[in-house]
Amino acid sequence: MYPFIRTLMTLVRAKSRPALAIDGVSVMHFRAMPWDIDIFGEVNNGRQLTLFEQGRWDLAVRIGLLSLLKRKGWGLVVAGSSVRYRKRIRMLDAVECRTQCVGVDGRWFYMSQSFWVDGQPCSHALFRTAVTDRGKTLDNAQVTDAMGEQWTHPTPDWVLAWDRADHERPWPPNPLALESV
User: Fold this and answer.
1) Can you give the three-state secondary structure of 83-142, one letter per residue?
2) For residue 171, how many other CB atoms are within 10 A of its CB?
């Protein structure tokens, strides 16, 4: 089930937290609740994706993106993700979520997110996201200009390599691709 109450709480709390620049790091904390846990007593991979969204909401509010989206009638979309799971997150663990935009190109914002428990990294995700208007992605220069921000950092090589590799996958998916291996 989608965490509507948790999302509402994230949005309300984010409004009272300090503003961040577009390259700032959002750090937020939450507990892994019983409704986040699977039959093995841990937060499963699907739920982690949903919880990562909370970090992106916090960042969107704090960099001023969410208010811009409301004013312009724009939306957000996730167009790709890659997650590395390394340590279990168990019920009632205190989790730190770190979120940062690590790259921007003409079309995509690349978001790096990680979960930490007791100072140890548990998982790391990279998301390819975009701002949309009427179902089409906007040029990011338009978005950053409207935010009064400018992206000046080079996109890390590991992000570019992931993006290139992801574009090599066939689309639409070919169910016969496995038969030829």
Assistant:
1) EEECCCCECCCEEEEEEEEEEECCCCEEEEEEEEECCEEEEEEEEEEEEEECCEECCHHH
2) 7
Helix axes of 4-15 and 45-62: crossing angle, nearest 10 degrees = 30
82-109 pLDDT, tens digit per residue, is 999 999 999 999 999 999 999 999 999 9
| Half-sphere exposure in the Cβ direction for 104 (13 Å, CA) | 17
pTM: 0.93
Q: Which residue has the tokens 């190109």?
A: 105
The phi-psi region of residue 134 (left if phi > 0; otherwise alpha if psi is between -120 and 50; otherwise beta) is left
Please state the three-class secondary structure of 34-79 as a single string.
HHHECCCCEECHHHHHHHHHHHHHHHHHHCCHHHHHHHHCCEEEEE
CA–CA separation, 74 and 71 (whole Å): 8
